[in-house]
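Page 42, continued from yesterday. The earlier attempt failed because a stray header line got pasted into the input along with the sequence. Redoing it now with the clean sequence only.
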Amino acid sequence: MINSAAPLHETLFLKAMPFIFVFLWSTGFIGAKLGLPYIEPLNFLAIRFGIGFLLMVPVVLFTRTHWPARGQDYFHISVGGLLMHGGYLGFVFLSISYGTPAGISALIVGIQPLIVAALAGFLLKEDVSLQKWIGLLLGLAGVFLVVFNKLALGEGTYFAMSFSFIALFCIAAGTLYQKRFCSNMNIKSGNMIQFAVAGVYFFITSQIFETGRIVWSGELIFALLWLVFVLSLGAMTLLYLLLRSGAAANVSSLFYLTPPCTAVVAYFLFDEQLGFLSLIGMAVAAVGVALVNYQRKKTGGV
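This time it went through. Structure tokens are written below.
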């Protein structure tokens, strides 16, 4: 809840946090597109989380970070990390590496809010009103409009897209699990634990399933640094803060804005054209997210 007595800059940041998160999260698909031509996906992620873990070590050591008090807390944080990082990111990167366009992958994963909303009421005892359901369905419709042209062209293969569907269920399960069991985790020590677990997971799987081929290039280095600093350290921290302060269904609705935002970024970076239906879809998705979050804003949420 926003404190009316909080400093103006803090209040503005809290209000802007969801929009900052959407933009940063959407660039993950762009980072994958930039880097994957030069490195295999599991190895890419092993290096990414290895660097992320090393960056967190001095932060945790020099800030007297609070660590989980119980063994079961370590377990829950690790499971959340495997779902959010190992499952979601691993299968998204595999999907894109096998030929699924970034927009299609973003579309498939963008269905996540419907799954979270359907399960949040049962698992987390959250109220999912008719207004929220209408907003969620509008958001889904907007997502389909944004990537309609790519779907019509039949880009990608069913095998490649199947990995995106696995990623979809991993991010939905991870969102619910994180909200249920890890809402009170310390962001710094929690991130460090999850980076370590994800790094070990991707290192082992890359050794088993990949050749270790890397072609170092400027694009690969830029993509790697962007994904480490902006996605792993920035966007994931914002996601955990949002989950801590808001309902899982409300936070998940923000993922509907990822495909439209990805399309805009791809337009400027890769000259991927935005059709009329894509522009309409962005507006529809934005209206859907506004409907899902309207009551929360009215009652003083983030």
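Notes: Residues 296-302 have pLDDT under 50 and may be disordered.
Reminder to self: strip header lines before submitting.
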